[in-house]
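Support reply, case 0932

Customer input (verbatim):
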Amino acid sequence: MHPELNAALAPLLADLQVPSGVAPTVDDREWQDFPGAASCWLHSPDGTGMGVWVQTGQPFTAQVLALAEQVHEWAVEALWKLERSASWPACPHHPDRHPLVAREHDSQGIWVCPVLNTKVATIGALADFRIRKRHLRGRT
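Our regenerated output:
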């Protein structure tokens, strides 16, 4: 897999590991033949796949945000096929109402609640957010 695609996809794959997510099988075969593009396939548990890609040579955060939209689309389809809530990544403030959205803040990709317009976690750190939240809940 192209190193830029691998680096930009890694935080999203980490976020798919949270309980509301679904883990893909990554197939690093290129499918995009545009100059300066790096691509791979994400396969659902049922074997269906969707291609994702990034434009190489772009800033890392821009690549992560571009992939966030594509991975979100893949996750919604994969979760729907599993008859699970397709609201990924799930908003901790509004469970099962809407997913978080990817935005840039301070040159970093973050997940934001679109209703409250508040940062929930850095892209790649959803699991850390859930651990912190559970830890804080136990201390009150």
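We compared this against your earlier run and they match. Two observations from our side: The longest helix spans residues 60-81. The chain has one domain: 3-139. Please reopen the case if you see a mismatch on your end.
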